[in-house]
Amino acid sequence: METETLLLNMGPVHPSTHGVLRFKLRMDGEIIRDCQIVIGYLHRGTEKIGEMKTYLQFIPYTDRLDYIAAMPNNYAYVKAVEELAGVEVPQRAEYIRVLVMELNRIVNHLVFMGSLLLDLGASTMIMYGFRERENALQLYESLCGARMTFNYIRPGGVREDLPDGFIPKLNEFIKDMEKRIVDYEELVNGNEIFLMRMKNIGVISAEEAINYGMTGPSLRGSGVDYDIRKLEPYSIYQDLDFKACMRREGDSYARYLVRVEEIRESLHILKQIVDKLPEGKTINQRYNFAPNTGAPSAVTSYFPRIFTPTEGEVYSRIEAPKGELGFFVASDGTTKPYRVKIRSPSFCNLVALPKMVVGLKIPDLIAAFGTIDIVLGDVDR
Amino acid sequence: MITNPNAYDLIVAILNAIGVYNIILGFFQEQGMEYLLRIVIVLVEIAVVLVFVLLTVMFLSWFERKMFAVVQSRYGPMVTGPRGLFQPIADGIKLLGKEDIIPATADRWIFTIAPYIVFVSVLLVYIPLPFGESLILSDLRVGLLYIIAISAITPISILLAGWASNNKYSLMGAIRAVAQDISYTIPLAITAIAVVVFVGSLSTVDIVNAQQGYWFWIIPKWFIFLQPLGFILLLIACIAEMGRIPFDFQESEQELVAGFFTEYSGMKFAMFFLAEYAHMFAVSGIIVTIFLGGWTGPAIPIIPIQITSLIYFMIKTYAVIFFACWLRDTVPRVRIDQLLHLGWKIMIPLALLNLLVAAFVVTAGVI
Fold it and tell me: Crossing angle, helix A91-120 and helix A362-372, to 10 degrees?
């Protein structure tokens, strides 16, 4: 029988493309013969905006990159600026930064679990995930007034100290989460249909994953021990006890398990931070980072809004929940960056998707796509 | 051949009991139009069933949403009426007010008629469904065969809807639905035959009657205890027939947007919606009839058996529906090829084995 391939245009308006992503699929019946990814529907020119705003003004824009987990975006940019300007950060601020980032990792992975299960047709998990996420968001709200776009981490520290009652509420959250995560594993991991849909689907080998530039949990699912928190410990990660979660299979299930395990590790980190949290200032009140421009050294109650780092360039990277998030910031000695380049994990991980799904079926595309965990705000920038 | 009493006889009996039947009959006989009375009574039956189906659909959609909400620790519909009970009415009014869009490239005629075919084919399943003692529209001698045959119309109309929409998602959803229906009607039919072997009749009433009584005074003579394997197979096949998670391929929201009814809106969409829930109730009723003893249950003094049997039937049917909803709340969707694999390579051989054992048992005269 003579058959033709069918060009199926999936997206940008589709229930499970996690935003405005478009796949151009060449289908042979249910089987995907070719998969092209079309992006750019959410392009906002964030990098160009970075050149037009002062160093501090750009921080809120980083919130809008990966809006599921915005704290690491804040931090990655601020870290680059701090390295550029040579700002020292008080110890308490570093602890708070790691605290909010790890909390955000949990939030991200909860949304990941929920949306993955939703993509597979089980709509209960997303409600559970969002229920726990709500508790975390309320913590954030008490911390900085915002639930998703925080604008909290600043060069030299954090915007505000922890509010009263934050730590007890956090402890409650940790205790609650530790119980819930067991429930979720019971609900999801042992489910025969879930395993059928996830195991040996969307397999990518370690070598291929590296060649495609995958990072984060998606790469660790393929058996590459690559966690920037371990390789290049930044902030206070060298003082913390945690392990980089890794699986060898490289399939959708492995990528899922890595993230579930990371929730546990993040809870473990949070507990250590609660124990170790030092007293002190939360923002560097003395700045004298530009000796050669002759900028005055001064002590203020807040970090200055406008400052001029020395000429130079910095690439700094962190382990965001979705993978390696890097900011390249170049300074020409003025109050605005000369260039901001964002290396976003979602973008780099997404590129590997066609490799995973060609030869599989549409439902597998949705499942594999769910497990690489992208956010379109992060892909398009 | 003795025919089992059906709803027509029941209406006549009720009219007799209040002493008006002969008066009405006399009136019609005077005009020489006795057949008109039959038609009127049948029309009344149809009206009752239609109203019942509509009410059931409304209640079911509320029930499912509410249950879904409870599982997910939400409230669900709360605003319209007590505990949101009138939400389906509000939904219906909303759908009535929607623009009825027919895509420019669609086949207008088929596109329009397909939802009605689906709905009618589902309604036809209600004819031989025994709701209770003599509460049956028509006790067809080929009842079970009829149900399976009528169910086979649904995939055709789904294919019509998918094809006429001229949308790739619709077409894929329709093709999936047909592939699924074909591969699950077969194990469904074979499992049903295994029960027929015991009963010796295809009539749904005879099947229920065969399940009356108890073994050892305590275990009801339901076929679920005779053929547990058959029950499991039938349950899986029926959930696949209903097209619900984990087998909701005709819809596959996350993959195919909305499957075969992607392009439908307004009342045409409402027809599919009605058909889906009406089908869900009908199929659950069939499961109850074949394996869970139908309307049988301990008799309660004073209350007429017609009422108690109806209550038993409803309880059992809602238990099956509860299970189907529960499944939807918990498990993901399987993949289409895994579903076909399950249907052809596992369920059909098991169903045949079940039939073989049943035939052996009956031939050897064990029961």
Answer: 170
Residues of chain B in contact with residue A9, where contact means CB-CB under 8 angstroms, are 168
- Residue A66 CB partners (closer than 8 Å, separation 6+): A72, A73, A108, A320, A321, A322, A325, A344, A345, A346, A375, A377, A378
| The two three-digit tokens of residue A210, written as one number | 């590296």
**ipTM given for this complex:** 0.77
- C-alpha B174/C-alpha B159 separation (Å) is 5
The closest CB to that of B257, out of A14, A119, A122, belongs to A14
Distance CA A14, CA B103 (A): 18
pTM of the model as a whole: 0.84
Q: Which residue has the tokens 């199926």?
A: A8
DSSP string, B261-313: GTT--HHHHHHHHHHHHHHHHHHHHHHHHHHS-TT-----SSS-HHHHHHHHH
Candidate CATH numbers 2.60.200.30, 3.30.1480.10, 3.20.20.70, 1.10.645.10; the one for domain A46-380 = 1.10.645.10
pLDDT in tens, B140-153: 888 888 888 888 88
Tell me, rounded to whole angstroms, the distance of Cα A172 from its chain centroid: 24
Phi then psi for residue A259, to 5 deg, are -70, -40
In chain A, which residues have pLDDT < 50? 288-294, 296-301
Residue B28 lies inside a defined structural domain of this protein: no
- As a three-state string, the secondary structure of B299-348 is CCCCCCHHHHHHHHHHHHHHHHHHHHHHHHHHCCCCCHHHHHHHHHHHHH
B39 in a structural domain: no
Suggest the residue from B74, B172, B254 to mutate for an interface test with chain A (most A CBs closer than 10 A). B254
Picking from B175, B331, B337, B338 by the largest number of A CB atoms within 10 A of its own CB, the best residue to mutate is B331
Contact map slice: A 26-55 vs B, CB within 8 A: 30
Q: Is A328 helix (H, G, I), strand (E, B) or coil?
A: strand
Greatest Cα-to-Cα distance within chain A, rounded to the nearest angstrom:
81
Tally of domains within chain B: 1
Cβ atoms of B201 and B211 within 8 Å: the answer is: no
In a domain, B35, yes or no: no
Distance CA A279, CA A162 (A): 11
Full domain range(s) for residue B216: 50-364
State yes or no: pLDDT of B12 exceeds 80: no
Q: What is the pLDDT of residue B253?
A: 66
Identify whether the C-beta of residue B82 lies closer than 8 Å to the C-beta of residue B104: no
Give the start-to-end residue ranges of the domains of chain A. 46-380
Is B60 within the bounds of a domain?
Answer: yes
The pLDDT of residue B362 is: 83
